[in-house]
Amino acid sequence: MASNKSLAQKISCAYQSTYGQLVRFFHKRTGNYHDADDLSQDVFTLWLNRKEQTPVQEQRAFLFKIANHVLIDHWRKNQKQKDLYQDDCKLDDATQSYTTEIDPGYVLEHQQRLDLLSEAIETLPPRRREAFVLYRFDGLSQSEIAEQMDISISMVEKHIAAALLYCKRYVDAGQEKCTNDE
Length: 182
What we know:
Elements: H1 2-30, H2 33-49, H3 59-102, H4 104-122, H5 126-136, H6 142-149, H7 153-181
Helix pairs in contact: 1-2, 1-3, 2-3, 4-7, 5-6, 5-7, 6-7
């Protein structure tokens, strides 16, 4: 028990005398105080969790040796994250170019859906269309629409809900018709 207490005291003293130096060491190499602070704490965590219980003769040198290993691991981890991010970006670019440039069927299907939606909106009753367009395309709130159209908010909600349902059914029926025609 006495050895654990003396180890804790040594670590506490080393923490007080070396922590600021470790933060500066990491900050110079990472350029980020948050990372420097976290990495400095990792050094002491590793010291506390080490398997060997042999006494450390030169605490400062030992801590900076751990710090070098922590820094290398940090750089490796960051490099892996950058590589993964770049791979994701390349995949996104490839997917986008595939769906828009290589797959004309996708573009045609999308255009057909937009045309059907436009037809559906045009065939809505005038007041319902007005409420729907003000809400979906002009970005007005339901209370603003109610005020502008001189109707209740409840009526605005009913117009919008009915318009959404009608448009969905219209587009779905139009796509089904296109599929049956093929």
